[in-house]
Each structure stands twice: as C-alpha cells, then as structure tokens.
Amino acid sequence: MLQEFVEQLGKNTESAIREIHTAMPGKVIAFDSAKGTASVQPIMKFKKPDGEMIDYPQLTGVPVVFPQALSQQATVAYPVKEGDGCLIIVAEQSIDYWMYGQETNTDLAFDLTNAICIPGLFRQPSALVQEACRKNAIIIGVQETKLSVGQGYIEISAPEVRMSGNLTVSGNIDSGGNLSAVGAVSAGGSAEIGGSVSAGGGVSANGDVTAGSISLKNHTHRDGRNDVTTIPL
To answer: Residues with Cβ < 8 Å from 169, sequence gap 6 or more?
Structure first.
C-alpha cells in the first residue's frame, strides 16, 4: 500500500512539473513593430500522458526584448523578421499587470501565457561572430555593410557612408576616393584625398592645401600690371 502511494505521488509530482515552463528555443512567426510583440513558435515537443509527442502551441502577443535605457532614449534597434531564432522565457507570474497596467484574475505560475521573447538565438553563429572573436572586436553588420570597433580603431566598410550632422576631425583625413560635404569642411590636421573634394560650405585648413603639385600657400600669379602677388592664407 505504501509503495503504491509513493509511486502515485511520484507520478503526480512529475505531471505537475511538466506544467511548469521556464525557457525554450523558438522562432519568430510574425512581429508587430508598433506594439513590440511577436507571435512565436516553441521548437520543442510536448509528451502527452498517453506518450504521444506533439508540438507546442504557437504563442501570440509575446513582448520582445530590445536593449534600451535612459527611459528608452538610448536604444539598440534591429529588424525582427519571420523565421528569426529566439529564446522564449516564461515569467513565474502573470505579466498582464506589467503589460496593461491593471490587475487581472490570472494566477498561472510559469505558464506559456507569460512568455517573453529574446531574439537572436540560433543553432550556429554567423560569420561575423567568428570574426569578432578572432579580432577581439565588436562588429555590427547588415549584409555588405559592416562597422567594426576594435582596440585602437574603428572601421567602416560600406558602399556609402552618410552623415546629417557635423564631422570634427582632430587628426589627419586620408581618402582614396572622393570627399563630398553639404556643409563646411574643417580639419585640424592634414587631409589627403585621392579623388575630388566637393563642399557646399567653406573649406578650412590650418596648414597648406595642395592640389596636384600646386601649393595654395606658396602659389603666385600675375595681375593685370604683371606684378607678382602671393595669395595669403
């Protein structure tokens, strides 16, 4: 009799544990960027009491985690798309009060209705992860565009680099191509440009400016009276 009681107690405990959900891998089915919620599919199997293995149900209205601080004035944002891998974690209590700001009668602990999605969990790392580990650098990449931050350097690899604000350079500027600016260009050091320079505003240099082999600082020309005039900087 005692043995039967122990066995039944063990079965009841195991059954109760199976209803407790903590964390699981999943994939994004859809993402609503206006609400910050997603539909996600857990990539796991659930064993029924009769032994049959079935898929977990799809979860909807799941809040998605993004790195944010400073009352959301500092945010790292990236696109979340269908098929992206994610980690689904389950809160120990209902998250309705946190999401909607009102009390609910829901009292489900570790239930799938309390799921939260953290995007970025994949079976294998991308090539950028391997490169970042090899170079000891932080790398942000979107297809052919890449920003690398390593010890003592920042490297940008992109077909086009755009800036809407001011650019202040205290060192040298080296460019193998063209340099185009809508506003003024100012350099405290030297600027070496292999292509053309286009500026919608002024160009200011503390040192000499050389175009081809002609020095602006030492360049001379003749006026109408054939006098030699030096152009001061």
So the answer is: 186, 187, 188, 189
Q: Tell me whether strands 23-32 and 197-199 are parallel, antiparallel or unpaired.
A: unpaired
Q: Which helix (H) or strand (E) holds 99?
A: helix 96-100
Which residue do the tokens 């199976």 mark? Answer: 18
Among 153, 161, 196, 146, residue whose Cα is nearest residue 175: 196
Query: Angle 17-18-24 (CA atoms, 0-180°, nearest 5)?
Result: 110
Q: What predicted TM-score, i.e. pTM, was given to this entire model?
A: 0.73
CB-CB contact of 42 with 59 (8 Å): yes
Task: Give 9-46 pLDDT, tens digit per residue.
Answer: 666 666 666 778 899 999 999 999 999 999 999 999 88
Residue-wise pLDDT for 108-124, tens only, equals 788 899 999 999 999 99
H or E element in which residue 32 lies: strand 23-32
CB 84 within 8 A of CB 62: no
Asked if 66 and 50 touch (Cβ cutoff 8 Å), the reply is no
Q: Distance (Å, rounded) from C-alpha 150 to C-alpha 57?
A: 43
What's the start-to-end Cα distance of the chain, in Å?
A: 105
Instruction: Classify the C-alpha dihedral 140-29-32-110 as positive or negative.
Output: negative
Say if residues 231 and 221 touch (Cβ distance below 8 Å). yes
Rounded Cα distance between 229 and 223, Å, is 7
Structural Rg of the chain based on CA atoms: 31
Q: Tell which residue, 121, 124, 123, has the closest CA to residue 85.
A: 121
pLDDT in the model for residue 74: 97
CA distance 92 to 20: 9
